[in-house]
Design a protein that fits this description.
The complex is a heterodimer of chains A (183) and B (121). Chain A has one domain. Helix content of chain A is 32%, strand content 20%. Chain A is built from seven helices and eight strands; from the N terminus they run βαββαβαβααβαββα. An eight-stranded parallel sheet of chain A has the order 5-4-3-2-1-6-7-8, with helices on both faces. Chain B has a six-stranded antiparallel sheet with strand order 2-3-1-4-5-6, covered by helices on one side. Chain B has one domain. Chain B has 121 residues and is an alpha+beta fold. Classes of the chains: A alpha/beta (183), B alpha+beta (121). Chains A and B meet through loops of A and α3 of B.
Chain lengths: 183, 121
């Protein structure tokens, strides 16, 4: 059964993890249209071409597609499309919502949903701009615990060491969390 | 079908016929001719809606001075209804309200008529 305190954000990078396990774990937010094989709770879209593709794809019929207000005005007559709520975290990034990536908006949405634990799968932190936006979100969301989930790798990620609310874990550790949650 | 399971996301207001607009309830009590005209208008709207809408709709029973509130499930039905106004000789208030599935908020959007169709401001 889904836990209301957990949220999974699926980023644009390929994650070698079974999506079925994620669906039963908590609310799922997909950034863009990366996975068409499963039905997620929310799909965050910031690009018009991608939104058109998702509206026309039968894979997203049961997914609530959330887009920026400027995009929503163009696609208001499609009932599976909804407008993103006003996200206060945007102001802390120094950017406008239209300039942010889908993965960054997805994380902000999970904070807005007041989730206790947010698990990031396939999240792109190689892009330095993306990384700085994520760090800005971490700074202003001290009450949310974030987990950057990746495949087992002996190389450590140290960039988040100064953030108490961010943990880097691998799929094996996440499997343990899943097991504990299902007990 | 059970109407409770339907999510009415869109709301429009169809203006009353000219003489019936902005009439207070005590005025309407003295003018049965206007009440009859309003009832006929509501019946006509219901019949046409039944014919043209592909998905569920609901007509507001509450009295509104400006017009009849219409709730719709489908965005495509809303678009059709807006562009087919001249065909049925009715007029809507150029606004569409939408209920956000995530937040539950009712948001108001302004309808802008363009030569090629309808857009939202």
């Amino acid at each position: 059964m889904k836990s209301s305190k957990n949220c999974v954000v699926i980023g644009p990078l390929f994650a070698q993890y079974d999506p079925d396990k994620l669906l039963s774990f908590g609310d799922t937010i997909m950034a863009g249209s990366v996975l068409q094989s499963h039905t997620f709770d929310y799909g965050v879209v910031a690009k018009e071409s991608k939104l058109q593709e998702m509206i026309n794809s039968s894979a997203f019929r049961q997914t609530t597609l959330l887009c920026t207000p400027s995009l929503y005005k163009k696609y208001l007559f499609f009932e599976q499309v909804d407008c993103l709520p006003s996200l206060p975290t945007v102001a802390n990034t120094g950017k406008k919502i239209d300039d942010l990536s889908e993965q960054a908006i997805s994380v902000m949405l999970s904070v807005w949903l007041e989730k206790q634990n947010v698990y990031l799968f396939g999240y792109d932190i190689f892009d330095l701009e993306e990384r700085s936006v994520l760090m800005a979100i971490l700074t202003v969301s001290p009450h949310t615990k974030f987990f950057f989930v990746r495949k087992p790798n002996p190389q450590k990620i140290n960039v988040f060491d100064s953030y108490e609310n961010m943990n880097v874990i691998d799929y094996v550790t996440f499997d343990g969390i899943l097991k504990n949650e299902s007990k | 079908m059970n109407q409770n399971s339907v999510f009415f996301k869109y709301q429009l207001t169809v203006r009353w016929p000219g003489p019936c607009r902005n009439r207070a309830l005590d005025v309407l009590q003295e003018r049965p001719d206007l009440v009859e005209q309003m009832n006929n208008f509501r019946t006509k709207l219901d019949k046409v809606a039944r014919l043209i809408f592909r998905k569920k709709y609901r007509i507001d029973l509450n009295h509104n001075l400006q017009g009849i509130g219409l709730w719709l499930e489908s965005g495509q039905d809303v678009y059709d209804f807006i562009i087919r106004q001249p065909e049925f000789n009715w007029e809507i208030i150029p606004e569409v309200n939408t209920v956000n599935r995530l937040t539950g908020e009712l948001n108001k959007w302004k309808i802008v008529y363009t030569p090629s169709g309808v857009s939202i401001d």
